[in-house]
């Protein structure tokens, strides 16, 4: 298990992706996102996750330029927005994202949601971008098992990552098992269930035992579950606190206790009903 913030897992195509990163969903473009990203990178984060739909790619790109870390030490993810899905429109959307970020390539490009009737064509566009070496890895976000099966029956290149809502209330066991069998790396968005789970007495008890916060316990549980995690924060002390999870380990018993909190409860939209 990772013992350092810059540690990576190897995706099925050999690309190394950090276990831990910063998400910037709902972080305002401009000063807010620039400062968050710079704070995170200066605190040792090497992975930043944005999306065309977050409307802050320009700010992320500016922060990367200002912070002065060599590009090849960073891992940048962005996603194709739902309105842009389809083959040609995805290729155009990718160019727009690349331009806004001010980068020569993207480390990981994801389909943001499985838009019915479009995501297969979108996947073919991602395969082209990958073959053209414009992206180092390609994947999906918010895909259930049946969405993945639809892609896998026709794809030339398997998704390398599936980024989904994942936290102790939503442990996604069937999906995790399927992704493991297919060598698709799971990644957690909303790992802290939008903060709603942080008051849970069981998490508080485990946190006290390790002299950590409930948030740190959950993020450590993600990593020990083999799931990449990208907590979001714009608060400097929280960005640093979230990353302070590499100096302790949860016992098997504690892991099982946290697993048992599952209620199949979502704080976000179900991909099956996403409009």
Automatic annotation (TrEMBL):
Lineage summary: Bacteria, Bacillati, Bacillota, Bacilli, Bacillales
GO MF entry, a single one: oxidoreductase activity, acting on the CH-OH group of donors, NAD or NADP as acceptor
Chain positions of site Lowers pKa of active site Tyr: 79
Stated name of the protein: Aldo/keto reductase
Binding site residues for substrate: 112
CDD domains: AKR_AKR5G1-3 (cd19157)
Record-stated family: Belongs to the aldo/keto reductase family.
Keywords: NADP, Oxidoreductase
InterPro entries: AKR, AKR5G, Aldo/ket_reductase_CS, NAD(P)_OxRdtase_dom_sf, NADP_OxRdtase_dom
Active-site residues, Swiss-Prot/TrEMBL: 54
UniProt domain NADP-dependent oxidoreductase: residue ranges: 29-263
Pfam families registered for this protein in UniProt: Aldo_ket_red
């Amino acid at each position: 298990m990772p013992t350092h913030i810059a540690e990576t897992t190897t995706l099925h195509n050999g690309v190394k992706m950090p276990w831990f990163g910063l998400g910037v969903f709902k972080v305002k473009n401009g000063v807010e996102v620039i400062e968050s990203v710079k704070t995170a990178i200066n605190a040792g984060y090497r992975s930043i996750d944005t999306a065309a739909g977050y409307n802050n790619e320009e700010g992320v790109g500016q922060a990367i330029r200002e912070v002065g870390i060599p590009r090849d030490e960073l891992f940048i993810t962005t996603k194709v927005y739902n309105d842009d899905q389809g083959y040609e429109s995805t290729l155009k959307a990718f160019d727009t994202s690349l331009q806004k970020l001010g980068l020569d390539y993207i480390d990981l490009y994801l389909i943001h949601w499985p838009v019915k009737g479009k995501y297969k064509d979108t996947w073919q566009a991602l395969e082209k971008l990958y073959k053209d070496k414009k992206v180092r890895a390609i994947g999906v976000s918010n895909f259930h098992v049946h969405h993945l099966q639809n892609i896998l029956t026709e794809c030339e290149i398997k998704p390398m990552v599936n980024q989904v809502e994942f936290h102790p209330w939503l442990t996604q066991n069937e999906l995790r098992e399927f992704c493991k069998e297919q060598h698709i790396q799971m990644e957690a968005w909303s790992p802290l269930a939008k903060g709603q789970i942080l008051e849970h007495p069981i998490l508080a008890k485990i946190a006290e035992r390790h002299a950590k916060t409930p948030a740190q316990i959950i993020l450590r549980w993600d990593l020990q579950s083999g799931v990449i995690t990208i907590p979001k924060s714009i608060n400097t002390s929280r960005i640093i606190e979230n990353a302070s999870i590499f100096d302790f380990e949860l016992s098997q018993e504690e892991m099982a206790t946290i697993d048992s909190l599952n209620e199949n409860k979502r704080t976000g939209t179900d991909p099956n009903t996403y409009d």
